[in-house]
């Protein structure tokens, strides 16, 4: 044992491998072993506990158990830093700042330089949903919990019951709502989409000029004619979407479900050459 200070380690009987520095540090220890108490009256009341670390004035003054860590400058049960070596648990009573001395934004604030990784969560498991961050209030019900996990190139958001809410596929740059493996840039499952602003849709315009007074401009596989028009030498008598095979499949061949979707725009004039225009929107087959 090492004891430095008035009544430091005063009660030692059979305890061994202790280090007490400061007036009254470890004063009540009789049988405890491998304790470290640094500071006036640090670990003062601990008589039989072992493997404790008390740092600061009266740090851990009233602690009676083993394997505890206290870092503070007062006799408090809620020190600035508390730990349990047996369970490998550490607790910060207050706000923790990393890269800042003023963590005013919350209990944990991480500040980093520009273009630097600010906060990283890493796991040794390379599988799906292997690295997880959990947000939860005190109730802990399924709708009071959000888990964000990442693995195998996909980031998933789930509620407390494990139901997937949203997915981000980093490999293919896709977003899914209500499913885990989106097959398109944006895929929504199990509900409706409500938009308060504008929706900009990707589309192409296909044309076909016939040798006679009628013709069809085709959209092809995976596309649907959402509009169209005609330019003719005579009066236009027919201008309409049709499920008929197109005269010029400039995008691709008509899909198997052509009978249920308008795949081309049909034009007929009273005379002369006619040019058909089809506005084609991308749809899933």
Compact overview of the structure:
The chain is mainly β. The chain has no helices and 21 strands.
- Summed over residues and divided by their number, the pLDDT gives a mean of 85
The largest pleated sheet is described as:
7 strands, mixed
Count the strands? Answer: 21
Derived from helix and strand composition plus strand pairing, the structural class reads mainly beta
Put simply, the count of helices is: 0
Shape: rod-shaped
What multimeric state do the chains show? single chain
Radius of gyration: 37 Å
Strand order of the largest sheet: 1-2-3-4-5-6-7
Give the H and E element order.
Answer: EEEEEEEEEEEEEEEEEEEEE
The level of helicity is under 10%
Strand content: 35-45%
Unreliable spans are 248-260
Straight-line distance between termini? 80 Å
Folded structure, characterized:
- This protein has no helices and 21 strands.
- The chain has strands at residues 2-4, 19-21, 36-38, 53-55, 68-71, 81-84, 89-92, 96-98, 108-110, 131-136, 145-151, 154-159, 164-169, 174-177, 186-188, 203-209, 214-218, 223-232, 236-242, 264-269, 274-282.
- With 285 residues, the chain is mainly beta.
- The strands form 5 sheets. Strands 1-2-3-4-5-6-7 form a 7-stranded mixed beta sheet, with no helix packed on it.
């Amino acid at each position: 044992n090492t004891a430095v200070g008035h009544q430091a380690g005063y009660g030692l009987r059979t305890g061994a491998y202790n280090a007490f520095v400061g007036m009254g540090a470890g004063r009540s220890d009789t049988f405890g072993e491998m304790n470290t108490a640094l500071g006036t009256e640090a670990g003062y009341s601990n008589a039989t506990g072992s493997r404790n670390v008390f740092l600061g004035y009266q740090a851990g003054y009233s602690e009676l158990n083993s394997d505890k860590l206290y870092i503070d400058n007062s006799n408090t049960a809620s020190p600035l830093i508390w730990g349990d070596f047996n369970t490998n648990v550490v607790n910060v009573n207050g706000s923790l700042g990393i890269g800042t001395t003023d963590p005013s934004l919350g209990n944990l604030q991480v500040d980093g330089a520009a273009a630097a990784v600010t906060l990283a969560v890493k796991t040794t498991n390379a599988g799906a949903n292997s690295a997880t961050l959990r947000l939860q209030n005190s109730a802990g019900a399924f709708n009071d919990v959000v888990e964000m996990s990442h693995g195998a190139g996909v980031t998933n958001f789930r509620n407390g019951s494990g139901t997937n809410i949203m997915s981000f596929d980093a490999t293919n740059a896709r977003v899914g709502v209500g499913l885990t493996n989106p097959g398109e840039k944006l895929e929504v499952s199990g509900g409706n989409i409500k938009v308060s602003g504008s929706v900009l849709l990707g589309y192409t315009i296909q044309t076909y000029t016939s040798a006679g007074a009628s013709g069809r401009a085709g959209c092809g596989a995976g596309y649907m004619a959402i509009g169209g028009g005609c330019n003719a030498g005579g009066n236009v008598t027919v201008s309409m979407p049709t499920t008929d095979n197109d005269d010029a499949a400039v995008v691709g061949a008509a899909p198997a479900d052509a009978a249920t979707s308008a795949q081309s725009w049909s034009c007929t004039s009273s005379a002369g050459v006619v040019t058909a225009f089809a506005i084609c929107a991308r749809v899933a087959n």
